[in-house]
Amino acid sequence: xxxxxxxxxxxxxxxxxxxxxxxxxxxxxxxxxxxxxxxxxxxxxxxxxxxxxxxxxxxxxxxxxxxxxxxxxxxxxxxxxxxxxxxxxxxxxxxxxxxxxxxxxxxxxxxxxxxxxxxxxxxxxxxxxxxxxxxxxxxxxxxxxxxxxxxxxxxxxxxxxxxxxxxxxxxxxxxxxxxxxxxxxxxxxxxxxxxxxxxxxxxxxxxxxxxxxxxxxxxxxxxxxxxxxxxxxxxxxxxxxxxxxxxxxxxxxxxxxxxxxxxxxxxx
Length: 268
Ligand SMILES: Nc1ncnc2c1ncn2[C@@H]1O[C@H](COP(=O)(O)OP(=O)(O)OP(=O)(O)O)[C@@H](O)[C@H]1O
Ligand SMILES: [Mg+2]
Known about the structure:
Layout: E1 5-16, E2 19-31, E3 36-40, H1 47-54, E4 62-67, E5 70-71, H2 77-85, E6 87-91, H3 102-112, H4 117-130, H5 146-159, E7 164-168, H6 176-193, E8 196-200, H7 204-210, E9 213-218, E10 221-227, H8 228-233, H9 238-245, H10 251-267
Parallel strand pairs: 3-8, 3-9, 6-7, 7-8
Antiparallel strand pairs: 1-2, 1-4, 4-5, 9-10
Helix pairs in contact: 3-4, 3-5, 4-5, 5-6, 6-10
The structure holds adenosine-5'-triphosphate and magnesium ion.
């Protein structure tokens, strides 16, 4: 059976003032429908570039991306726009519209899609319920915590009804407990809507917590990929070993540690 996402011999070279950077070097892998696929690697390994190529935010220098059997690089502008609506993305710094309140942020993609205002608001309120943020509908992003902002971003991305959700360090700005709640939300979305999720992270605990599969990048190359349990229990490459060995505590423990620290801080 054709995999849901297939990346074939993907290369991305940047030509900068100070020379060329081969950010992604001949990478091939597949992602199954409904998977939660982690991408790990050190800073500069090429994770963001690779993921930005998945929705052609970044044009690959060469290689192919197939989504549901269709080659994205061969689509017309119009077809590509449609295909892109199917691929949502969330970021470390949330990228909310600061001048709009929470409800209007979530309505935004619906308005773009031409949904009537009343229907858009109704649907947006349902999505805010899904992310447990109904009571903040009238608040502005500046009045929210990081975790709440990410929930708004998730509700907004869901409004476009995507089949794929790309997350670039979506929990990196959050404390362990908030990270855990956002990961639970992502897992719930994956189950409830069957959305395939791609997660870039530098936290191994995030991979262990929610991912089904993982890819290890180093210096633009794909070093290893497989089921999380295989890569984490018996990493085959040095790159994977280094990352997995560096593995910190899991998120629950980290959250508990943080509580203890708060108590200790309080106690002086
Ligand atoms: N627009 C660009 N122009 C030139 N070089 C770039 C550009 N974007 C990324 N690079 C380079 O490509 C390489 C990979 O960068 P990328 O952002 O994909 O890494 P990353 O794995 O996401 O790192 P991090 O964990 O720090 O986010 C780096 O050497 C980076 O400097
Ligand atoms: Mg990055």
